[in-house]
Design brief:
Number of helices: 14
Radius of gyration: 22 Å
Structural class: mainly alpha
Pfam families: Haem_oxygenas_2 (PF14518)
Distance between the termini: 56 Å
CATH superfamily of the largest domain: Heme oxygenase-like
Strand content: under 5%
Protein name: Thiaminase-2/PQQC domain-containing protein
Shape: globular
Largest sheet: 3 strands, antiparallel
CATH class of the largest domain: Mainly Alpha
CATH architecture of the largest domain: Up-down Bundle
Number of domains: 2
CATH topology of the largest domain: Heme Oxygenase, Chain A
Helix content: 55-70%
Order of helices and strands: EEEHHHHHHHHHHHHHH
Number of strands: 3
Length: 330
């Protein structure tokens, strides 16, 4: 199936997905698009980021230049350079190919920004490790319930059976995270009674919103979020590094990483690629909605990482674990 891109109005650039990686002190930056990863001089990349906020379908080149304080010829040159690497639409392509590339892009971005990667920073307190595991506990417990709701919406047939199998394989996995938290000194009772952060709850809402648009979107989400998993060859090394860094008993994090190994063996990251015959979206409006909601979900995970740092790493006396707010507390 092909998707018919809307034709842009002349002088109104239509940017395709573009993800920038910039280290100001380095000579080269990188931009990832659906067509690949490209080098850009850092100065040029920073100059474009001052223009990029105004590159919406509502602004032509003249307005982009005015709002960004950049000469129109410079704006046109920047956009021409982006067009040369396929970052300006419209583009043609098979829907499956485009969706596959999108989840690869967003999954790789989630993997780069995964909060676990920052746990070895000297400034990261132990409370952030506990917070990350607590929010993982809540997410892992809720995820199969959201999939079950998608399965209930799916028509009888292969997709429903696939989703039901996925539910069965995911349910109960929060016990691995619970055991890890117990190893770190929290009790089962306080973990089970704890309250997820707002961002974790929002991820639950976003999943259900996405799956309501199209149950098959479960497979796209699986392809995207599994990219956060630490590569198998580094799992044991990474576990030991964190345990030494936080002066934990050897093996304290073992149950969490066992869960990762189980998920990797089950191959859930390949559910979309291995079940393309289940992809049943033909309405272009539904495709637009699914891509938009999937992108929202990606940013939901970004927000969760930031909130974990803020809530569990702050100095304002926040409860650990986070507590519900019942009537008796007011």
């Amino acid at each position: 199936m092909a998707y018919t891109d809307p034709m842009p109005t002349p002088d109104y650039p239509l940017l395709r997905e573009n993800i920038w990686q910039i280290t100001p002190e380095e000579p080269l930056a990188y931009v990832e698009t659906p067509d690949g990863c490209f080098e850009v001089e850092t100065g040029q990349a920073l100059a474009f980021l001052r223009v990029r906020p105004h590159c919406t379908p509502h602004n032509n080149v003249a307005r982009i230049a005015e709002r960004s304080g950049t000469h129109p010829e410079q704006v046109s040159a920047m956009l021409a350079a982006l067009d040369s690497i396929g970052a300006i639409g419209p583009r043609r392509g098979d829907v499956i190919e485009r969706l596959t590339r999108a989840v690869e892009l967003w999954g790789a971005e989630l993997a780069r920004d995964f909060i676990a990667n920052a746990l070895l920073d000297e400034a990261m307190p132990r409370t952030v490790l506990l917070g990350w595991l607590l929010e993982t506990y809540h997410y892992v417990r809720d995820f199969p319930e959201a999939i079950a709701e998608a399965a209930a919406r799916a028509p009888e047939g292969p997709l429903r059976q696939l989703l039901l199998r996925y539910v069965a394989e995911e349910r109960g996995h929060e016990r691995f995270v619970l055991e890890t938290l117990e190893n770190l000194g929290l009790s089962r009772a306080e973990v089970e009674a704890s309250h997820p952060l707002i961002s974790t709850r929002m991820i639950g809402f976003l999943m259900r919103d996405l799956f309501a648009a199209a149950p098959v979107a479960v497979l796209l989400m699986a392809a995207m979020v599994e990219a956060q998993a630490i590569p198998d060859e580094r799992t044991l090394e990474f576990q030991h590094e964190i345990e030494r860094h936080f002066d934990l008993a050897p093996g304290a994090l073992g149950p969490y990483f066992k869960h990762q190994e189980i998920d990797a063996r089950l191959g859930h990251h390949r559910l979309f690629a291995d079940n393309l015959a289940c992809f049943d979206i033909e309405d272009e409006a539904v495709l637009d909605l699914v891509v938009d909601r999937l992108h929202d979900l990606k940013h939901g995970f970004d927000l969760q990482g930031l909130e974990i740092r803020h809530y569990y790493g702050g100095q304002d006396g926040a409860y650990l674990p986070r507590q519900p707010m019942p009537m008796r507390a007011i």
